[in-house]
Design a protein that fits this description.
This protein is mainly alpha-helical and 516 residues long. Helices cover 75% and strands 0% of the residues. It has helices spanning 8-15, 18-30, 38-48, 54-59, 65-85, 92-108, 112-128, 132-146, 154-192, 198-211, 222-238, 242-258, 260-265, 267-283, 287-301, 310-331, 334-350, 357-373, 377-388, 397-414, 420-433, 439-451, 459-471, 482-485, 488-497, 501-515. Helix 6 runs antiparallel to helix 7 (112-128) and helix 8 runs antiparallel to helix 9 (154-192). The chain is globular. The protein starts with 7 loop residues before the first helix and ends with a helix. The model has no long low-confidence stretch (mean pLDDT 87).
Length: 516
């Protein structure tokens, strides 16, 4: 399968909305550029073609091959300038930067008083909106200008600016240390996944404590608290402490609700905080809170004041619809969740250039799980094959592992016995290559090895034996994580009780709600 060629300029042009394209052409018109300008002609060509093809562009004769890269670079720059001028992309952060640019220009013209006036307003705006890095830049420029613009108040002014610079510097250093820790923990999570024993737990705990800077929670601003909660959240995820995940994800989200202006300024962090809160609630099986949080998040993203640009729109889709799947998994409402699949697949077409392939594969796993729960095993296999056969993608090992296990179970359920032995062997070979397997996976491997040799009348007894072994791990803090990918216990119960798996999960859901 040949991959569609990705060109940065082409992807940028295709990402533009109708209003942004109109804005670009108006911007070009204001430049006084001739309508037949080469970069505008190139823009129109790229806008019309559906797949990037350099050969067809060169055939248009607008430019020679050796000049094309320069023309593309020029067009790319002009589009970015146009987007920067677009009101829909204006926010506090850009406005502060713009004021800093204006003040710098005035300073270089020797208009010190005018420059300082703009800098003072920009600095107050930056501090109010927790933009402390740019606030520090502004103070440093103020110091440079004050040293040349002589006033009688210079001594007091020098002290004031020095104290302000020191305070901002200390806050920025703390925020940097916390953001570094958060990023390092996230990197560890992607590399190693969840801890699997007490020894790994201790290693991560030491790693976290050694890098956590000292802080006074009462003196922290919004930005420092945000990175602090993120650091604790990733530590909690790594150590499989979902209750602490819920605690710090709640603090993260509440921080935004207490500072609503920050939702507008940092919508990505707001969306991600809600996603991790929902993930923690899903793992804790807190259905009512999960449902309320998901509904609230979706409603906020529909508000007119919420900044739903291209990036935020795709992230909102990613997080909300992933959790809509999870809601059906909690309820065991697999058949009711089937219409969601067509909606997701249609939206994935619209967001294909904005959502990475890994997250698309996660959607495929959820789609496969939905079909499996609904008893449509062949459709389940179809989407699992998209994951298993994707050789170019570096995916998390645990997702690949459970995709293969679910694929095997779906083949068994679908009665596709003609190649079951081959599939068992290939799945077994894949699993034994993995390092640090869960005990749940090891027991399942043992079961797979003998599955082909079991007589039909003995299969139920083997299901009962495996079920008994796996039940021992259901409440194990390290092993229970495996059941969140694939509810093997409910599947085994469906085979023992001779009931559809969707019905078994749904009955458990209702029983749990009645006992609360």
């Amino acid at each position: 399968m040949t991959r569609e060629q990705k060109d940065n300029l082409f992807v940028l042009v295709k990402s533009l909305s109708k209003s942004e394209k109109r804005q670009f052409k108006l911007y070009v018109g204001r430049l006084g550029v001739n309508e037949d300008s080469k970069f505008l002609t190139l823009f129109n060509i790229l806008d019309k073609i559906s797949v990037y093809d350099e050969a067809s562009i060169l055939k248009k004769g607008i430019v020679k091959k050796q000049q094309l890269s320069n023309l593309k670079a020029h067009l790319y720059k002009q589009i970015l300038i146009s987007l920067r001028l677009n009101p829909s992309h204006q926010n506090i952060r850009i406005q502060i930067r713009e004021q800093l640019d204006f003040a710098t220009i005035l300073y270089h013209k020797g208009l010190y008083k005018q420059s300082l006036k703009i800098l003072d307003k920009a600095k107050n705006l930056a501090i109010t909106n927790e933009e402390k890095n740019v606030a520090y830049e502004i103070v440093e420029l103020e110091k440079v200008i004050e040293s040349q613009y002589i006033t009688r108040s210079l001594n007091n002014r020098a002290d004031e600016l020095s104290i302000q610079a020191k305070e901002l510097s200390l806050q920025n250093v703390l925020a940097s240390k916390l953001s570094n820790l958060s990023l390092q923990l996230y990197g560890l999570f992607l590399k190693t996944g969840y801890v699997k024993n007490d020894e790994e737990h201790q290693v991560i705990t030491n790693y976290f404590n050694d890098r956590l800077p000292k802080y006074d929670i009462d003196k922290l601003g919004f930005r420092e608290k945000l990175w602090l909660y993120k650091s604790y959240l990733w530590y909690s995820f790594l150590t499989v402490d979902f209750l602490s995940c819920y605690k710090y994800a709640s603090k993260w989200v509440d921080l935004f609700y207490k500072n609503k202006d920050q939702i507008i300024l940092n919508p990505v962090f707001f969306l991600r905080g809600n996603h991790y809160l929902l993930e923690a609630l899903f793992y804790l099986r807190q259905y009512e809170k999960f449902k309320t949080t998901l509904f609230q998040l979706e409603e906020i993203t529909k508000e007119k004041w919420f900044p739903l640009d291209d990036n935020n729109e795709s992230l909102a889709f990613l997080f909300i619809y992933n959790n809509k799947f999870n809601l059906h998994f909690l309820e065991g409402s697999f058949n009711e969740g089937l219409p969601l699949i067509d909606e997701v697949l249609e939206r994935l077409k619209n967001y294909k250039n904005r959502i990475d392939e890994h997250h698309i594969m996660v959607f495929y796993y959820k789609i496969a799980s939905m079909y499996f729960g609904a008893g449509e095993n062949k459709k389940c296999i179809y989407y699992l094959d998209k994951i298993i056969s994707n050789k170019s993608l570096q995916m998390r090992e645990d997702l690949l592992c459970f995709s293969r296990i679910l694929n095997l179970v779906a083949h068994y359920e679908a009665g596709l016995d003609y190649n079951l032995d081959v599939l068992i062997k290939s799945t077994y070979k894949f699993l034994i290559k993995m390092e640090d397997l869960y005990e749940v996976q090891i027991e399942f491997i043992k079961f797979l090895r003998v599955l082909g040799d079991i007589y039909p009348n003995e299969v139920k007894n083997e299901f009962i034996k495996l079920h008994k072994k796996l039940k021992e791990f259901e409440n194990d803090p390290y092993e229970s994580r495996a059941f969140l990918y694939l509810d093997i216990i409910s599947w085994l119960e469906s085979k023992i009780q001779n009931k559809p798996i969707g019905l078994v999960i749904r009955n458990k859901f209702h029983e749990k709600r009645l006992t609360k």
